[in-house]
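Bit of a strange request maybe. I'm writing a small parser for structure token strings and I need a real example to test against, not something I typed by hand. Could someone generate the tokens for this chain?
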Amino acid sequence: MKRHRFWVCVLLPAWLCAACMPEAPAPEPAAVVLPAAPLPLALAVPTLPTPDAPAKPAGFSGWWDYPEVLARLGLSAGEGEAMASELARLERVYQTAQRQLRTVRDTQSRMLADARVPSADVRRFNQRNLQMLLTSMLDQDIAARLWVREHLSAEQRARVLANAPQFYAMRWFRAAPAPEEPSTRAPTPSESLAPPGAGPQ
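Reply from user aminoacidic:
Good idea to test on real output. This should exercise your parser:
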């Protein structure tokens, strides 16, 4: 009985002290550090264009002047050179009509914006100028295709069509360069109704 009272006297105060002590804060979870994901190669090492690289041809326009396009067609540089003179001549005629067409369209737009210009004059201007120039451009385009078809051998035609089945449907001629300083002078009424290429009277 004495031994029981001894343990009560010893353990009870210790238990009471432990119960009165403030609870220790729970330890915060350690932050998980994930390794950085590697960037894609295209983002990590961007490929910048070379400033001095020559401009590549757009599609098949002017194909007779570009060895890489000729190779895609199955033709050699020499075969392209043999056709370059005539095709370049037709392209120049096409571009001349295209430059005139730009001027004529600008004139027609100003005629339409001017309510004083009769509708009959606008229609006559369209027939004499726009339609004629568009026809000229189409004529040069088909003339080039017919000339190439007639001058290629059967073996060459088969080679070209095997590599580019849409060869005759693709655009061949390059657009005419835009003028650096287009004229802003408004044409006189006589010039507006004159055929393209005609100067002031």
